[in-house]
Amino acid sequence: MINFHQVHKAYRVAGQDIPALQPTDLHIARGEVFGIIGHSGAGKSTLLRLINRLEEPSGGRMQIDGEDVTALDASGLRRFRQQVGMIFQHFNLLSSKTVADNVALPLKLAGELSRRELEQRVAELLTRVGLSDHANKYPAQLSGGQKQRVGIARALATRPKILLCDEATSALDPQTTASVLQLLAEINRELNLTIVLITHEMDVIRRVCDRVAVMDAGVIVEQGTVAEVFLHPQHATTKRFVLEAEQIDENELHDDFAHVQGRILRLTFQGEATYAPLLGTVARETGVDYSILAGRIDRIKDTPYGQLTLALSGGDLDAALARFEAADVHLEVLR
Amino acid sequence: METLLANLLPNVDWPEIWQASLDTLSMLGGSLLFTVLLGLPLGVLLFLTGPRQMFEQKGFYALLSLLVNVLRSVPFVILLIVMIPFTVIITGTSLGVAGAIPPLVVGATPFFARLVETALREVDRGIIEATQAMGASTRQIITNALLPEALPGIFAAVTVTAITLVSYTAMSGLIGGGGLGDLAVRYGYQRYQPDVMVVTVVLLLVLVQVLQSVGDKLVVHFSRK
């Protein structure tokens, strides 16, 4: 759906080129929710804005839905942008227009619908985001979560193929964030809409994304499925994000369990394996004792996962390790 | 009542005051109309070509900015006199209400344009970006997002400009423009008839008050924040 070939971007500041995005290849499939995570200044916002050319690329080629977007002229670009919805951290609703008029604006600009069709479409969209009762209110009368729902309705008005989300939940409280993310996930499923979102919160990625790219200093340092990246982070930046998400103090990480006896290993379960009674079975069959040193059981999008750090002692250790290897889990021997 | 007024204000010629009031109102109305018609596009142009805006044009903006500043720094009294030949070309006369309107417009337009530019800069950049992302053309961005969002600020600018024009009309008496201000200068100051001056000043005060409160109401009405 979205293909970037060596796309890069530099800003010219005081006669000097400041690189914001190093030459980057990016492939996003139709219907997937793709997350881009990075700290501020990592270039994620630039990358997102290149997709609908709110930022002009300094070089490289961008193909979106089979169309060479880099080659579009002004009117071609306007037509293309009608097929790409966008929502924003600060909602960017027009304060002078009612909720209904805000949602109607992209339709009015496109100018393809009759007045009646337009009203019907707006009503349909407001129902979809649960705001039918607020059609005639002004944005200032709404809560943050409601404003973002108006933003989503507005972004979907022209039936786009792609939805770009620019830190769409960063200004919202955790509960509202959850409901907005749920709405995005529903829309993704129902409309088979491709969603690209940028965030600095791993939790947002974990809840809705299928794949994720981690950015640092204008470079994608790591990308893959959320489970891969989340459970087996390679790059230092990714590891920091994962720790933040799990609310683990970095100091705790240096605890090498020196005072703990026996072998130390980390097991990672995914999917159905998360619920299998593996530990007890292995302990009974091989006679090893285990103690859980650290652990977490949670969900990535709809997939349950667990990650446990164990100390094993006594019994037949080698047999236990072999049993774990054979089971449907990822095994790392830490000591 | 009438004798009381006549005793208190012996020099006041009411029909003349009435005529002067009408002159002031038509000068104000005419010049405000043309000031808005010319100043609004000029303000939009200043905004669009200004620093870090959609059509940033450093050279053009600097030139336009200079022109506006030159016009704004010429004292209005001097502008009135310098404009006389141009006024004759445009209206056929340099006297009366018609003769006063061109210098008033030239004096107020740059001022109003600057206020419009400032009002447009107050519009959240994110809203412009969102409208661009919808695929809006520049013209659509201006008419559908920029102007509606800046409307309260533009009404405030019109109010301030109208009140400035009221005080400018007083000076137009110098070139035979007529109106309340002219009456205050000729009778009140030059002939030393303080009663005429008081009456005209009170009428001007009422006019300014009315303009300000109507303007404030419009600003509040169009503010949705």
Automatic annotation (TrEMBL), chain A:
User: What GO biological process term is on the record, naming one?
Assistant: amino acid transport
Reply yes or no: does the keyword Cell inner membrane apply: yes
Q: Where is the ABC transporter domain?
A: 2-242
Q: What is its main location?
A: membrane
Keywords in alphabetical order, please. Amino-acid transport, ATP-binding, Cell inner membrane, Cell membrane, Membrane, Nucleotide-binding, Translocase, Transport
Membrane topology qualifier: Peripheral membrane protein
SUPFAM superfamilies noted in UniProt: ACT-like, P-loop containing nucleoside triphosphate hydrolases
The UniProt family comment states: Belongs to the ABC transporter superfamily.
Briefly state the protein's biological role.
Part of the ABC transporter FtsEX involved in cellular division. Important for assembly or stability of the septal ring.
Q: What is this protein called?
A: Cell division ATP-binding protein FtsE
Name its species.
Pseudomonas taeanensis MS-3
Automatic annotation (TrEMBL), chain B:
UniProt cross-references to NCBIfam families, sorted A to Z: PRK10782.1
**Major site of localization recorded for this protein:** membrane
Q: Which superkingdom is the protein from? A: Bacteria
Among PANTHER family, the record links this protein to: ABC TRANSPORTER PERMEASE, D-METHIONINE TRANSPORT SYSTEM PERMEASE PROTEIN METI-RELATED
Which GO CC annotations does the UniProt entry carry?
plasma membrane
| GO BP | D-methionine transmembrane transport
**Where is this gene product found?**
Cell membrane
Write the protein's name.
Metal ABC transporter permease
Ranges where the ABC transmembrane type-1 domain occurs: 21-215
Which UniProt keywords are present, listed alphabetically?
A: Cell membrane, Membrane, Transmembrane, Transmembrane helix, Transport
Q: How does it sit in the membrane?
A: Multi-pass membrane protein
The record's Pfam families line, in alphabetical order, gives: BPD_transp_1
Which parts pass through the membrane? 25-48, 60-89, 95-116, 154-176, 196-215
